[in-house]
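Sample A.
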Amino acid sequence: MLDIDQVRERAQDIVVRARAGGADAADAVFAADASLDVSVRLGRLEDVGRSESADLGLRVFVGRRSASVSTSDMSSAALDALVERAVAMAREAPEDAWAGLAPAERLLHGAPPQLDLDDGGEASPESLRDAALATEAAARDVAGVTNSEGGGASASRSIWALATSTGFAGAYATTAYGLSASVVAGEGSAMQRDHAHHAARRRRLLDDPAAIGREAGERAVARVNPGRLASGSMPVVFDPRVGASLLGHLVGAVSGASITRRTSFLLEALGTQVMPVGLSVRDDPHRPHGLRSRPFDGEGLAVSPVAIVEEGMLETWLLDSAAARQLGLEPTGHATRGIGGGPGVSTANLYLDGGHVPVETLLADVGDGVYVTELIGQGVNGVTGDYSRGAAGFRIEGGAIAGPVAEFTIAGNLKDMLLNLTAANDLRFRFGINVPTLRVDGLTVASG
């Protein structure tokens, strides 16, 4: 696998070629990746897979016209042909008044922050096999588990580089490790499945296989023989693993593309209250060994922690350079790039801050309602905020978790849902988006 300097030099080289080939401006991304995946089922090895890839993406500008191309062929002749094709495509593309590279004065200069994202990625197939077997075995050992869909372990290392014709060249490496198990509990029509997984940038930070497996088994057993809910308006409590989706809808609504296209339910909400006072939504690209940490964004801009919502008030849109130009604002350092195409927008390590209610108190205040552990379907309208999704989980009776329930829908409007959030104090940083247990009052629940 190429090292960081080689990957950065590859990105710089194609930009130089593009300028020499007739492009007025250009940027390039280069990604190299190596991964190893092991899967097991019922105590036996099922599959071992290893993959390596190296891909390059080039974007060129001829005036206000642009084109993007990509390749995995790194020969000099192939790169020259790539540049020729990209410049020819750009000359035929429609003009875009907002197109262009990020402002040069906003680019990251100097040494990037050290974020502890790479431990070298050393993992043998045997060690991953043993970890996967231990994870699945712990899940199958839970009383009531009757079958297994398998366990898995993975390790990967990636290097990502960006270079621009305005003088930026940066690269960084990340490693990722994962463990998972998925099992079935119960018999016949009462069978239910559930899973657990954990991912970490450094292997030493990965949860113990026995803990992950046990969680998967206990989740599946708890769901056996679900009942039905009575339909009506009631409080809904979201488990953290599904409550994070509410922040995902918020991010979609405040992204530059949604605002410039006027397709957001929060279109007129900047500077207004969108959550209860006391709650904030923060994004931290500098979190040490965070799953989405990064030293610079997809356009080479410096990044820093930011409050998207502060004490309930919406503080900012999430903008790449093109959207910022269109809105007459500054880019926010949230651009993201793949190998093909231009920048999009994404957050780094996003989390909901300010929850202070113990989970037990939050449930007790509910009285009777429903605790949601699974969301199904995509019934969310990003333009109006209308929300309707299938769900499964548990009854809340007398302020305590009771029996499992399934085949119901929850419906409301995201504007109202965000304004009526109550957050518990059990925030943990385990995913790219992290929230504590959340309660939303007054949602409509309909049994299937």
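Sample B.
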Amino acid sequence: MSVQGTILVLDGTSTNRIMLKVQLTAAWYHVVQGEKLQGLAGLLRRTKPDLVLTSQTLPDGSAADVKKLVLANPDLVDVPVVAIAPQNDKAARLKALSDGLDDVLAHPFKDTFLLARVRSLLRARAETQELQVENSSHPIGFAESSAAFISPAKTARVAILTQTPRTSALWQNALSKRTRYSLSAHTTSNLQAVLSGPLPDAIVFEVSAGPSGLKLLADLKSRSTTRHTVLVGVLEEENAHLASDALDRGADVICMGPFCADETVLRLESQIARKARLDQMRASLKQGLVESWVDPLTGLHNRRYAMRAIDQIARKAARSGKGFAIMLADLDHFKAINDRFGHTGGDMVLAEAATRMEQTLGSAGFIARIGGEEFMIGLSDTTQAKALDLAGNLCACIREKPFDLPDSAAPIPVTISIGLIAAQPNVSTYSHQSQRLDGLIKSADTALYAAKSAGRNQVRLLPSAA
């Protein structure tokens, strides 16, 4: 039997635990059972559940106490804890949400709704775990603790989507008295009004029995702009089948009708806080990926990027039949600059030299700092004559204007040497490509050494075989 995840069921009444176990194991979940708070910390450590379903009241505590114990375990802080409350007990439902529970289900419930909510919660946790793994595996700047809580901004934007203008106005009025979110009211027939303005952080939408409501969900989830928007569905009346469909189509939470402003606000606060945390993780991941290709001192690309870019340039050349060029450039007598002005002065020269060369190169190719005072330049769709002309301009942009340094009474002259290899396209199979590129880079390095030996401040070319 394939097990989809481990679910911990906590209830002081054995028949309730057994009923839940039967429902969940039939859907191929592994179920662990408990009945009270005593010993729960050890049970959590041993079983490491993916989800906890707990009665709102236990023999020695409450669902809120369970949530605290789960949060106390650093490995489980992202595990959803769902309270099970008596049916038609609105006060109990609101208390569970205000206590920080991830959701509250009214007992008894239909199998379809229970399993849809379980699937939804486990998908949400999997998304969080994937971001945590990607962040933690990255070598740059991902020290964000998974337990960190980020409060949603009070000015979060919330759009209300209902079937009629009257309903949306009533919901907006009720919510505005309970929250400082920026609210806007729309009808489902005018989704464009929501998408054309500032994108909302959350959408509270009326789940209709017709296909249009579920189609709206699919539309919102398929768009890159609203894929991560919080979707809070509100049913006119309790309808387990419709609620299940909405959850499986991407709704983050479902409020069984009729509309309750207090419950909606509690769910919005929880979901928008979660979105803020995930947005920060995505931004951190994106920034880390950018930084992994960038040299922090000069802002140029780094060696890792350069090797990938040269490979792509060579592939393009093989397809187009046009030539490409590789240059290795090295600032002359850079050690003397460091010795005289310190590493701070040397860093200023590197940064300014990078800026000048990047501006001179323009869109003709890429430039990367590959170590110390050494740079790599790659040009695609070029000829030997064009590459030589550009290399000369790169030398001139460093030589013609001395560098200003704070510790120098007068600007200091700096020059650069460049080794160039102009390559013809290679139509051989890619299995030989990496070896050929290594050879080209070594040839450019040989040309650079020749430029240094000839007196520096010049370009030396090494011809390339076809």
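B remarks: The radius of gyration is 31 Å. DSSP finds 14 helices and 17 strands in the chain.
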